[in-house]
Design a protein that fits this description.
Strand order of the largest sheet: 2-1-3-8-7-9-10
Number of strands: 10
Number of helices: 6
Keywords: Membrane, Transmembrane, Transmembrane helix
Order of helices and strands: HEHEEHEEEEEHEHEH
Protein name: Aspartyl/asparaginyl beta-hydroxylase domain-containing protein
Radius of gyration: 22 Å
Organism: Streptomyces flavotricini
Distance between the termini: 83 Å
Low-confidence stretches: none
Strand content: 15-25%
Structural class: alpha/beta
């Protein structure tokens, strides 16, 4: 074998080794990212999860607002990425506890009875004004001594929470907005920022308030994380300091 042939063979071998190592590294990183996503959402491959839909305020029986349907699309993409199976159920037809299957519950307590139950049992420090009469506190979220008011088309708020009952239990994700567009904004924020949330909370329960800015102009896209209210939300209101 002369030097030219030897150099060609060595080059081919080096290229194959480099390509194989690159493929292995990319595969390893992809699998690690997938495992972390599955752990955060409680969605191992082949598992089942619930998506609990609310009803459209003022709509016909069983109707869902367009923006709430968009929220479903935002979350269903995450579920598909994890290789899990999605079951869509109406808020008033769920008759089971939580922890056995991951759950995504969308909509405030006025339009979603399941949300109202989760707030009462797992976030007792949160109070939502359920009045249907016009006024500054209509739909306001009260938690930790703060009041987060809704200003139509200008300021919307949404509670985004990940709730677990203990080690090994599957999480409930609660997206409780003041409007349908804030529900979509909360779902989109979860889809875009789940890596940051996973790093910050390391699998623990959390509850944050998001602010949706000028939804008339920007829709669900301009969202700020306004406050972490985990401790206040999980403490009964009467005992909140």
């Amino acid at each position: 074998m002369n030097d030219d042939v030897r150099n060609i063979v060595l080059g081919v071998v080096a290229t194959a080794i480099s390509g194989g190592f690159g493929w292995f590294s990319r595969t390893y990183l992809w699998r690690r990212t997938l495992r972390r996503k599955q752990a955060f959402f409680g969605l191992p491959t082949g598992s089942d999860c619930l998506f609990v839909v609310n009803r459209q305020m003022g709509g016909t029986e069983g109707s869902v607002h367009r923006n709430d349907a968009f929220a479903l699309l935002e979350i269903s993409a995450l579920i598909k990425d994890c290789g899990a199976n999605l079951q869509i159920v109406s808020h008033d037809s769920v008759r089971q506890g939580f922890g056995e299957r991951a759950e995504f519950c969308v909509g405030g307590p006025v339009s979603n009875a399941r949300t109202a139950a989760h707030l009462a049992s797992m976030l007792p420090g949160v109070r939502v004004d359920l009045s249907r009469d016009p006024g500054p506190d209509r739909g306001a979220i009260h938690v930790g001594g703060e009041t987060y008011r809704w200003e139509k088309g200008q300021i919307d708020h949404v509670l985004l929470a990940r709730l677990t009952t203990g080690p090994g239990s599957r999480p409930v994700f609660l997206v409780s907005g003041q409007t349908a567009i804030s529900n979509q904004a909360g779902a989109r924020y979860l889809a875009r920022h789940h890596k940051d949330l996973a790093r910050r909370y390391r699998g623990e329960s959390f509850c944050v308030v998001l602010k949706v800015n000028n939804s008339d102009a920007y829709g669900p896209d301009v969202v700020d994380l306004l406050a972490d209210v985990t401790r206040q939300a999980r403490t009964p209101a009467a005992a909140t300091v």
